[in-house]
Amino acid sequence: MFSRKIQSLCIALFCLCAAVPQMAFAEYPEHPVTVYHPFEPTPYDALSKVYNAEMSKILGVPFVFEYGMMGKAAKATLTGKPDGYTVYFAAMGPMVLKPSMVGPSASPKDFRAVGRATLLPILFVANKNAPFKTFEEFRDYAKAHPGKARIGITNAPSSLQIGMTHLIKDLAKLDVELVEQPDGPVRGTIDCLIGDTDALISHPPDIMRYIKRGDFVPLATFAPERLAMLPDVPTLRELGYDFSQTSWRVLVVNKDTPDAIVEKLAKASEQALNSPAMKKSAEENYEILAWLPPSEADAFLQSEFDFYRDLSMSMGLHYTQRPEK
Questions:
Q1: How many domains does the chain have?
Q2: Do residues 99 and 108 lie in contact, with contact meaning Cβ atoms separated by under 8 Å?
């Protein structure tokens, strides 16, 4: 009888211990969640604000963005507690390009994905007064006038910088001047508007208003398929180049974050992205909602990291290929 009581007590204690982790996380979240964004606010961050508002409604606590964190965003997520209260709104440059092009730093394997939120297309446009109005005309002009065409690109490491450099130098093999814009997309847009550069590679949220106004002429999209927002603009593949590229936003947390918290964040994020407010904001800001759940988002991040590591190596841009000083 006594041994049976001991056995029953042990079973009860085992069940209680097994339930403790779930009980501990049952109330998540209990206080505000901080979402770190690597860049300063830009036009497409309107979507981020709507995401925050929707997540706050769904989970019942404020979701607060911290902007302009750059490397601090990754560090805060890596060194913070794995409790779901620190989320990193990761972008392509800091997450997969910096580890290859700048030097050893945090990469996808150091995080755990909550889900992929959006895709951000890449466009190649020309100033309305440029001596070319199509990609074919640009290519012919560049061949006829070596070194004369000036194209604005953001500074390294960025998706725009590596994508345009690969297209111009490796695929099209054109002699044009690639003008790096260290101040980001706003400066690059202004320079192209005033004619300091002939063309520009950028994202739709930063330049669509100027396309609609007639200030910029779209020449090509780097997307794998034509965009619904610009159905008449050809892809690079249609133009004869076996290359496509799209920027993205993926939500990640500390890699030791418990399953229950990741699943709750993922479920809420998917619900937020499917809300009418998010769909409206995405349409207005020319960003594409493209949800992937945690396991698929992890695989997506790793595939992007591998692709750009290999691409930077082939272009001689990998940090290990820099000459020693």
A1: 2
A2: no
Intra-chain end-to-end CA distance of the chain, in Å: 79
Cα 250 to Cα 34, 141, 256: the distances in Å are 15, 38, 17
Residues 192, 172 contacting (CB under 8 angstroms): no
Rounded distance, CA 308 to CA 317, Å?
10
Q: Is residue 97 part of a domain?
A: yes
Residue range 166-186, pLDDT digits in tens: 999 999 999 999 998 877 778
Determine, yes or no, domain membership for 190.
Answer: yes
Assigned domain for 23 exists:
no
Domain that holds residue 172: 123-239
Give the DSSP H/E element, type plus range, for residue 288: strand 288-292
Nearest one of 320, 271, 293 to 100, comparing CA atoms? 320
Helix (H, G, I), strand (E, B) or coil at 202: strand
pLDDT tens digits, one per residue of 290-302: 999 999 999 999 9
State the CATH number of the domain containing residue 223.
3.40.190.10
